[in-house]
Specification:
Helix 5 crosses helix 8 and helix 10 crosses helix 14. The chain has 14 helices and 21 strands. The two termini are 32 Å apart. By secondary structure, the protein is an alpha/beta fold. The chain has two domains: 174 residues, Rossmann fold, CATH 3.40.50; 211 residues, 3-Layer(aba) Sandwich (Rossmann fold), CATH 3.40.50.10300. Helix 1 links the parallel strand 1 and strand 2. It has an eight-stranded mixed beta sheet, sandwiched between helices. The protein has a five-stranded parallel beta sheet with strand order 2-1-3-4-5, sandwiched between helices. It binds cytidine-5'-monophosphate (C5P). Cytidine-5'-monophosphate (C5P) binds next to helix 12 and strand 16.
């Protein structure tokens, strides 16, 4: 994922330094060239040898270490870095960065670096909540440094509160974000995801197998590429991607209301949700008791959200639907493109291995007025990028 990129990982002296070892290892596995710089205090928690073994590069600690290959190591690393991540960042290192103090290898290199910088604070709650630390973080944000907020929980010092290093997933996403060109900057993108739930009674509902994964990947990719993203999602077990406006819904009608009320402000709408086509005509107030013999539930159609968007399109807006078929995929999807008056349908065949519900991968065919383009099997995150790239091209073709 980060093939050919140079990542400098700054590790400062908090107990969370031990978590940075796993992070360094995982960053290395992405294909990146990872260089670790530790503060002297950090070496009290974890040995530089740990990092050296994990990333295959010498760990830098002291600016005046005579053993270095480069005599101005801090400048060399600062120039090489594509992204600089300081995790964990102590209150002390944050304060030094905010003040421009450069009195050791880490702070000297970070001051010299021009690449995107990310800090992931980890410290005692009192230190984190202290207005001085908060002011320093604000200063860094104002200078364009990304801050990955710590989590709340039980801390090593015995306190409970904010200050625990963010989860590794959030740190990796911040690095990916920093390395992604912002070609969707200035655009508002609305994505729908997941299934809907249509209540039969207070206990039962009608739904489908959608996990929401494809839609969440589209939302995350659009955010990473600089868009302002709204994710309207039916119930899923996924964590909303960092930095998106999250609108949880249950029913097709709720999704209709939340999408249509926001539609006119969107330059792109990507409808990945598996919206129920039918809902029970009535929802029983009480649990329906079982009875002998067959039972029937009257169903009524839900409203087609994408169809509504096609009819009420604002100038310059591009619309994309997803379609899941078990037969005649291309023909059926081409018909949807026409009927719903949208720009793109991303079709996947549920019966193909590696496509469809709950998988990490997908095999899609992209249909536009220009024709059908089958894509090879790829990760859902890659499918998301392919879809967004084509939607951006369509938008550029038709003009804003
Ligand atoms: O016609 P079909 O349901 O197969 O079309 C799928 C596309 O239409 C998806 O993008 C889905 O999100 C959207 N859809 C919708 N409202 C519905 C049903 C489907 O927006 N009620």
């Amino acid at each position: 994922m980060f093939d050919g990129k140079t990542i400098v990982l700054g590790v400062s002296g908090g107990i969370a330094a031990y978590k940075a070892a796993q992070l360094a290892s995982d960053l290395g596995k992405t294909g990146a060239d990872v260089h670790v710089i530790m503060t002297r205090n950090a070496t009290e928690f974890v040995s530089p040898m740990t990092f050296e073994t994990l990333v295959n590069n010498r760990v830098a600690v002291d600016t005046f270490d005579r053993g270095f290959e480069y005599n101005v190591e801090h400048v060399a690393l600062a120039k090489k870095a594509d992204v600089f991540l300081i995790a964990p960042a102590t209150a002390n290192v944050i304060a030094k960065m905010a003040a421009g103090i450069a009195d050791d290898m880490l702070t000297t290199t970070v001051l010299a670096a021009r690449c995107p910088k990310i800090v992931a604070p980890a410290m005692n709650t009192g230190m984190y909540d202290n207005p001085v630390t908060q002011r320093n973080l604000q200063t860094l944000r104002a200078f364009g440094v990304a801050v990955v907020e710590p989590e709340s929980g039980y801390l090593a010092c015995g306190d409970t509160g904010r200050g625990r290093l963010a989860e590794e997933g959030a740190l990796l996403e911040a690095v990916r974000d920093a390395l992604t060109p912002k070609d969707l900057a200035g655009l508002s993108v609305l994505v729908t995801a997941g299934p809907t739930r249509e209540a039969i009674d207070p206990v039962r509902y009608i739904t489908n197998h959608s996990t929401g994964k494809m839609g969440y990947e589209v939302a995350a990719a659009a955010k990473r590429r600089g868009a302002s993203v709204t994710l309207v999602s039916g119930p899923t077990s996924l964590k909303p991607p960092y930095g998106v406006t999250f609108v949880p819904v249950h029913t097709a009608q709720e999704m209709f209301d939340e999408v249509t009320s926001r539609a006119s402000a969107q330059q792109m709408v990507v409808k990945c949700a598996a919206v129920a086509d039918y809902r029970p005509a009535t929802t029983a107030e009480d649990k329906i008791k079982k009875q002998d013999g067959e039972m029937q539930i009257a169903l009524t159609r839900t409203r087609d959200i994408l169809g509504w968007l096609g009819e009420h399109r604002v100038p310059g807006q591009v619309l994309c639907g997803f379609s899941m078929e078990t037969r005649d995929m291309v023909e059926n999807s081409a018909a949807k493109l026409e009927k719903k008056r949208v720009d793109m349908i991303v079709a996947n065949n549920l019966k193909e291995a590696g496509a469809g519900f709950g998988t990490e991968t997908n095999i899609v065919t992209i249909l536009t007025k220009a024709g059908a383009e089958p894509l090879p099997i790829m990760g859902k995150d890659q499918v998301a990028d392919e879809v967004l790239t084509r939607l951006l091209a369509l938008r550029t073709e038709t003009g804003p």
